[in-house]
Amino acid sequence: MAPYESDDSSTGDEADDMRAGRRKATRYVVPVAVVGVAAATIGLVPAFAGSGDPDLPDVTAQQLIEKIAASDVQQLSGTVKISTDLGLPNLGGLESSLGGVAGGGRDGSGSSADPSSKLLELASGTHTLRVASDGEGKQKLSLLDKAAEYSVIHNGDEVWAYDSKSNEAYHMKDASSGSAGKGEKGTKDRSEDVPATPKELAEEALKASDDTTSVTVDGTAQVAGRDAYKLLIKPKQSGSTVGAISIAVDAKTGLPLKFTLTPASGGAAVVDAGFTEVEFAKPAASTFDFSPPKGAKVTEGDELKADGPAAKEHKGDKGDRGRPGDGEDLGKEFQGLNVIGEGWSSIARFDTGGEGLPSEGAGGGDAGRFLDSLGDHVSGKFGSGTVFSTRLVNALITDDGKVYAGAVTKDALVKAANAAN
């Protein structure tokens, strides 16, 4: 029986109940969001840790999705291993330079502890995180390095980030913590621009349309010593670069313990994030205490208010975690933004208003030669352009400044560009 579908023996009322449950479930579960996850974030595929597959009661895919949606774990601490392999070219020190500019503004000044730039490190390689939570008002995430540690600590109306390598701290006030509703956790918006835990990644992936997606239960596993069900998500459509998404769901709490996204091309996972240790107990209060060490450089960041500019930058519609360019802001940044297709084969199309990218043949010089080396030249009814590819997200930039991007193949982008002309 296909996911979310009833068998022929179901009554009309039962079918209505199934559809109602499906609509509720899909709130949590859009392939388009997977593009954001991959482009903004997080390939090794570690085997599910454990000594064997546990024997658990049977559940349906819909029941498992609703179990995730109903999960309300407020207190936990643990260690997460996250690996990302987008297949991006080695740009040497350019990535660090861009990160510095992102954190300190256009002139590159600012703090190396600014979360908006520091957490971009999760976009490549393998990293170990320590996480702790004690309700909505207290969270801590630490990115561990060989000889350094970077932490973001939220404690009430205080938000601190600290980079031990540079001995720099970044401080913000969360004016929304005491008055905002549950859907407006302004403080968390800043650090959650880059999903870093299996739960955050799962919530992004589980926003898929059931018409374009196959969702099944794929057995059981043990993750971090916990019994878990495996939820398997696959596109029904052709043309997507997404092969499958596997989510290990804690059998008791419903918390996603592991998230793995594999590409249609095969090989190592593009994104793999999972707990290696987890405890569902109240962390010590001292976990969320922070004072800048002596001699540390402290940078004061924007105050996060429910209706302030910092919150608006990171807040999406109806209380969802925003992304730069959500809603009206996106329309201001790009002319004529629209989405072609649906589900996993969706392609975002917009006009930069420019003249495309410089190329070596068009007098672009060194910049043109560099860009030419990164992309593939294509042509069609739309004219000509360059396709820039990763193992998941591809983008076609035409010579007249149009952009087509999505978790789809190069041929799908060219086909969409031809159809639009």
Q: Secondary-structure blueprint of this entry?
A:
Elements: H1 12-26, H2 31-40, H3 61-70, E1 75-84, H4 94-104, H5 115-118, E2 125-134, E3 138-144, E4 149-155, E5 158-163, E6 168-173, H6 186-191, H7 198-205, E7 213-223, E8 226-235, E9 242-250, E10 256-263, E11 271-279, E12 297-300, H8 309-314, H9 327-333, E13 335-340, E14 347-351, H10 365-374, E15 376-380, E16 383-389, E17 394-398, E18 402-406, H11 410-419
Parallel strand pairs: 6-12
Antiparallel strand pairs: 1-2, 1-11, 2-3, 3-4, 4-5, 5-6, 7-8, 8-9, 9-10, 10-11, 13-14, 14-18, 15-16, 16-17, 17-18
List keywords for this structure.
globular; 11 helices; 6-stranded antiparallel sheet; TATA-Binding Protein; alpha+beta; 421 residues; disordered N terminus; outer membrane lipoprotein receptor (LolB), chain A
Description:
This protein has 11 helices and 18 strands. By secondary structure, the chain is of the alpha+beta class. Strands 7-8-9-10-11-1-2-3-4-5-6-12 form a 12-stranded mixed sheet. A hairpin with a 4-residue loop joins β16 and β17 (394-398). α1 (12-26) crosses α3.
What is the count of distinct domains? 2
**Low-confidence region ranges:** 1-12, 17-51, 91-108, 179-192, 303-334
Rg over CA atoms = 22 Å
- CATH topology-level name of the largest domain: outer membrane lipoprotein receptor (LolB), chain A
Overall mean pLDDT: 74
Enumerate the strands of the largest sheet in spatial order, edge to edge or round the barrel. Answer: 7-8-9-10-11-1-2-3-4-5-6-12
The total of beta strands comes to 18
Strand content: 25-35%
**CATH H-level name of the largest domain... which superfamily?**
Lipoprotein localisation LolA/LolB/LppX
Helix count, per DSSP? 11
